[in-house]
Each structure stands twice: as structure tokens, then as C-alpha cells.
Amino acid sequence: MLPRAILSFVLMSLSAAALAQTRAPGLPPVAISAQANRDPVEKSYRKMIRGMDLFERERALAPSAPLRFKLLPRHRDTDMRNIRLDVVGNTVETRVPIAADDTFVLQRDRLAFDEDAQVVPNRKARSMTWRTEIRTPGLPPQTRRLGDLRLECRVGMEAGLFSNRRNLLDRIFGALVDTPDMCSRTDPLYLFFSDQPLFSVSLVAGQRREFLPVGRLYAGASDDPEINLVLPYCDCEVLLDRSFFLPLGDTSWPDDTLVEFEPMAVSGVPGVPGAAVEASPAASEVVGAIVPGRSMRAEVVVALPKARMLRFDSGYEVWVERDRPESREPALPERVILIDPAGVVAKVRVGLPYAGKR
């Protein structure tokens, strides 16, 4: 276990997945609830321009994708409508247009760079978080390209879009490792967000298809019984069910690898009895007598007494059981069950997930 002082840095993108190397079996259910954070909203214009420079140097990772920046909510009550964004320096103040999807392009301004201006939205501190947005056009629905996401990480780190720091030690430690090189690790501590709440994430390259272990979804919350204590220092507070880590540095997956997302919602109609049942492409079997679309929550409680449960604000629950419940070793077979807000089992995934670099 890392010291608590370093814990908050690791959670700049909530690295609870990396921290929970060993946990005791039979952990109690984890109810996910958002709390306050201490991050400032504004970002350094100079650092963001340096991120844009890195994008130009390394755009071979995503040759057909443009670069945009994206604003995301941190709290349930964050109003993402009609946001005003300005570049503000000693003598410079320039309005930045924001698109309907909360993305924007930053224009280069030498004077703003020299004055070390700030990019400032008209929202309270700690109410929003930032990401890069690099998307190759024309991809199938519910997919992203791995090379795009690799470059998103590198640009985001160079642009200084993370600032979850609780004390001086956190800031000193962060300064040592907050670099694009972090993204070259097999399991970098960079948190991505999908467009919808997730049930599974798969990597697909040619005939090779592997799904990520659940420990790489939901910011690793399935492995951390103290998740509610550290969640206030994560920019995933209200996006936890959309968050995931990727093996960016695993070069056995080429840049053209597709990252496929299976959303929680069944046929786009969450919690509606009688909705069509969708089976995960990773597995077609069921866990004992647990059958999607028919089994109820009470049956899961009986069938999986050692499972760990995550309950999200949406009413969905994810139950996870592994052969060795005390370990998050990704090579272990795992059984993942999704229960919808009506208490009905919506989806089941059973199998051996991606185990790491080959």
C-alpha cells in the first residue's frame, strides 16, 4: 500500500486500480457517492499551448484526428450550459467559443503565452475537469481508436490538465512524474471517460479480441474498499461509471486497435422491464442459474456470496467475483453481473480478461 500522502497524487486520474494490489476477501459493498474536491478550474494557457505543440510533433499516432479540449462536470449540480471561457492575462482577455459538446479549440496568441495567461471558465473552482479530445472521424459507433487515446494521454499530461493535489508533498511528487512519458507505461495512471456508462471495454485488433478486467473500469473501485475516502480527490467523481484505464504502453496492440464499449443500458432503455437482453461479446455463458433478463438481484446475492458490489447513482449495480477475491490480478477468470435499476439482471460477462503485455 502506498503512503496516504502519495495516494492523492496517484488519484490525479484516480489510480485506485493501481493502489489496490492486495485486498482482504469478502469486502463490503461499495456505494459510490460524489463529494467535494479542491481543484481550481482554470488552467495554464502556456501549458495548453505546449500540449498543442506536442500534438503537432506526434500526430502520427492519430494522423486523421483533430485536437480539441473538453470540459467535463465534477459534481452533480455542475451546470454545463452556457459556459463562458476566456484566456486572461495581464493585458489580454480573449473569448474562447465552446461547442455544443463542451469541446473547444485554443487559438495561439503570443502575448497571452508571454504573459502566462490562464484559461478561465465562468464556473466555481472544483466544479469541472478537463481532458483532450482526439477522435478519428468515421469510426463505428461505440468505438475509439487506441492511437488517438495514446495521444490524448500524452497531450493531456503535457498540457497540465490534472491538478488533484492535497498538500505540498503531493505537488512535489506529481512534478516528478506528470510528464507524457507516463503514458508509455503498460498501465499508465491516466483515466479516460466514455460517452456512456460502461459495462465492458474490449480491445480489437484483427482477429484478436480481449476485454479489460473490471479492475480497469470504474477507476478501480471494485478493488478499493476505501474508494469513498479518496473519491473527492478524483476528477471522476460523477463520471465513475464511465471511467476506464487502458494499457497504452502495450505495443502488442497497434495504434489502429479499436477500443469497443458496451454500455450499461440495455438497448438504450435502462431499467425498463421487457427490454431486449444483450449478451456481452466476451462470453455467452451464465453464472450458475443467473440469466440476463430473468434473474433478480436476490438471486445474485445468494449465488455470489463473495462478490464485490458497486452501486452507482444511476441505480445500476455491478457485481464482481473472481476465483481469488482478495486479488486484482487481471489474468484471473472473473464473473461480472450488471443489475439494472429495477433489480433485474441485465448483463453477464464471464471469462478470462486481458492479462497484460505479451
Descriptive notes:
- By secondary structure, the chain is α+β, with helices and mostly antiparallel strands.
- The chain has a domain at about 40-165.
- The protein has eight helices and 18 strands.
- The strands form five sheets. It has a five-stranded mixed β-sheet, with no helix packed on it. The chain has a four-stranded antiparallel β-sheet with strand order 2-7-4-5. Strands 9-14-11-12 form a four-stranded antiparallel β-sheet.
- Strand 4 and strand 5 form a beta hairpin.
- The longest helix has 13 residues, at about 45-55.
- It is globular and about 65 Å long.
List keywords for this structure.
18% helix; alpha+beta; 358 residues; four-stranded antiparallel beta sheet; 18 strands; 8 helices
Strand content: 15-25%
Radius of gyration, CA atoms, in whole angstroms: 20 Å
Integer average pLDDT = 79
Q: Structural class, judged by helices and strands? A: alpha+beta
Count of extended strands = 18
Widest sheet, order of strands: 1-15-16-17-18
Shape: globular
Helix content: 10-25%
* Span of the ends, CA to CA: 27 Å
Helical segment count: 8
Annotate the secondary structure layout.
Blueprint (H helix, E strand, L loop, with lengths): L3 H7 L5 H4 L10 E2 L11 E2 H13 L9 E7 L11 E4 L4 E4 L6 E2 L5 H5 L3 E4 L6 E7 L8 E3 H13 L9 H10 L14 E2 L4 E8 L2 E4 L15 H4 L12 E2 L13 E6 L33 H7 L4 E4 L5 E6 L11 E6 L5 E7 L7
Parallel strand pairs: 1-15
Antiparallel strand pairs: 2-7, 3-6, 3-8, 4-5, 4-7, 9-14, 10-13, 11-12, 11-14, 15-16, 16-17, 17-18
Helix pairs in contact: 1-6, 3-5
